[in-house]
Amino acid sequence: MDMVASIKELATELGDNDQGVAYKAYKSLEAIATRASAPDNGPKRAKVAAELAADLNAMTKPEKDDKGKDKPRKLIHSSRTRNKIIRLLSYVAGAKEVPALAKILGDLDLREMARFALDRNTSDEATTALIKALDDEVGPCFRSGLVNALGRRKGVTALAALKSAAEDEDRQVRIVAVEALSNFADASSDALIVKATKADCPRCRARAHKARVRLAETLCRKGNKSAAKRICNAIRASDACPPQKEAAERVLKAMD
Amino acid sequence: MKKQERIGRRSFLKCSASGLAAASALTGAITGGSPRSAKAAGAPEAGGRRPPSERVVIGVIGTGNLGRRHHMGILLGHDGIKERVDIAAVCDVDRNRASEAARDCMTRTGRRVAVYKDFRKLIDRKDIDAVFVVTPDHWHALIGIAAMEAGKDVYCEKPLTLTIEEGRAMVAAARRYGTVFQTGSQQRSDGTFRKACELVRNGKIGKIKRIDTVLHTVGAGQWKPAQTPPAHLDWDFWLGPAPYRDYIPSHVHYQFRWFYEFSGGVMTDWGAHHNDIAQWGLGTDHTGPVQVDGRKATFHENGPYSVAGNFDVHYKYADGVELVCHTDQQKYDDGTEFGNGIKFTGQDGWIFVCRGGRLESSIPDVKNVKPGPDDVRLYKSDNHHKNWLDCIETRKRCICDVEIGHRSVSICHLGNISMRLGRPLKWDPETEQFIGDEVASQMLSKPMRAPWHI
Predict the structure, then answer these.
(1) Beta strand pairing call for B433-434 and B425-428
(2) A34·B450 Cβ contact <8 A
(3) pLDDT greater at residue B37 or residue B364
(4) B74 CB contacts (<8 Å, ≥6 apart)?
(5) Residue B155, pLDDT above cutoff 60
(6) What is the rounded CA–CA span in Å between residue A180 and residue A130?
(7) Which residues of B295-321 are buried (b: 16+ CB within 10 A; e: fewer)?
(8) How many helices (H) and strands (E) does chain A have?
């Protein structure tokens, strides 16, 4: 049996009611995906990724009903099976598989796993998909997950999206964005973080102060010591709690 | 113990080194005639118990078997420790477990402690100086970092983390907040392991060629149907940052170890102990191997446990020393045969060490070999908890500081990644990155379920 046929058959078995059969199929597919993910295995990886992405959103064949009208097409695989396919895609998906994953960011059962897969996908297309979902999707928890994923990326596109999210209408999204900004060596983010230190919610204020210390540390690590010093001195003079002030002192001392 | 006093004590120690005048001034500031400092300078209370100002106020997060019976058992009952601590709060997402732990405190001390489900509420308490993190592994980094950011000192169970990225974040937080951090790899506080490592470090078996760490095997587990979680367990909170899955009782308490979503199998469970001793013996606490090959691994297909059941993972350090982490009893070319433990092999002989004071070697009468005057002596601790409490007072680093715990469990994570990918990998221990393998690099971290993130 060729690889594509094998993947199709195993993907069907993923949905078997017998847990043992479904698990064996998953382990077999995982072995295929991990082996294909090796650095010197580009063509095979692309083939496996394409097949899994096709299976992810595969629909039933077009059929006519008794009156000759088109029957509504359905997804072949259950949410449970598709969840497993997304996990497998995490090993091999590249830019070409982003549309298949982005399509299910609106599916309440699968969107978190799809976000995980996009989180691990380093392509620019994945960044764009995460940013688009941040605009399009609903629910503070899911949207803060998108922000977290963007916070782990590098580059100006993600940074700009995070700055925008730091002024989101939702409090939870705002504070997570502020925390994510501290991962980027961008001194201009400090103004947004300072704004967050004046939030109504005490826990958000505390989190913003911690993010500020992290931003100073990131700037220091990336060589922008003057900005790091300025922020540390501002933290020392602020209403931050003692651990944050002490931490700012330590960052300052480390620079001396 | 009040945070201000801890800071004061720390400042005092620093100033003592820099000059008597400054030290005198600070001493005055700290001890300045207050009742608390008078107690601090005086004799212990009746029964050897320290006055409240000198006791470390502790919160225990995670009150399963290890948190409640092991750690709280020591904190509440061990001479030389119980006098130095007050447990103020316990926390668990399983209400029954938290309540049982609170009852233990009441029975043993006659005092009530606060009970929390949400660790953040415990950490918010200003009166708590330090916390134990004794949760399943997928929570260690999140809780540990939150505690450090709140200025608490931390004792965190091994394996320290679920991923290498989490470990680096924990080290960074500990340094940023000046945390006294103990990793629960308590074999470092066992004299037999220390002796073995000192013999190795001092060349008693010649130049080290190879280390074998031997763990036990893991079965496949049994298929069970999913159930509705019991009312006393907040299942969503238990899962926390891990991907959602249905509740199956036999996958939760203790058994979480056998699922990659929550832990790393026996590789991190026992590997965090034995590979830690390998690192100690080699003197590589701040670095690690440069190659890992986990191709000899077996994953069960007949049960739900996702972690590797059997393996022989080969590592190589930059100086050519080989570390092999196995499951199962090992027969060696020199005719020896050992199970669970650590075997160091050098050019001139071998040393095997494991728990229960077992120390064997090609060196005759090894247990009675005394160190020479110029021999390297390693950090000495005879009690892991006491070492942590001592360090909270002195602000020195613990015997198994966060960086040590991170580097030791990193070896285990590297092995797991190589086993899961089925290929050898090159590792740069300086940058803590894989060389030339994008997918392996992605496995240095794990996306977390919102709203959790580090």
Answers:
(1) antiparallel
(2) no
(3) B364
(4) B81, B385
(5) yes
(6) 14
(7) eebebbeebbbbbbbbbbbbbbbeeeb
(8) 14, 0
CA dist., res. B439 & res. B422, Å (int): 12
Which is nearest to B387 in space by CA: B87, B140, B185?
B185
* CA B230/CA B34 separation, integer angstroms: 51
Side-chain half-sphere CA neighbours of B352 within 13 A: 18
Q: How far apart are the first and last CA of chain B?
A: 29
Closest alpha carbon within chain B to A92: B439
Question: What does the pLDDT read at residue B12?
Answer: 38
Q: What is the ipTM metric for this complex?
A: 0.96
Structure tokens at B251: 């996958």
- Which chain A residue's Cα is nearest to B424? A38
Cα separation, B289 vs B212, in Å, equals 14
- Give the span between the Cα atoms of B353 and B6, in whole angstroms: 38
Across-strand partners of B91?
B61, B116
**A85 CB near a chain B CB, below 8 Å?**
no
Structure-token pair, residue B445: 């971290």
Going B328 to B434 to B174 to B254, the CA torsion angle's sign is: negative
Residue type, B88: A
pLDDT single digits (tens) A42-75: 999 999 999 999 999 999 999 999 999 999 999 9
Mean local confidence (pLDDT), B320-329:
96
B159 prior amide bond cis, ω within 30: yes
Q: Which residue of A has its CA nearest to B147?
A: A243
Which residues between 144 and 183 in chain A have a beta carbon less than 8 angstroms from any beta carbon of chain B? 144-145, 148-149, 151-152, 172, 176, 179-180
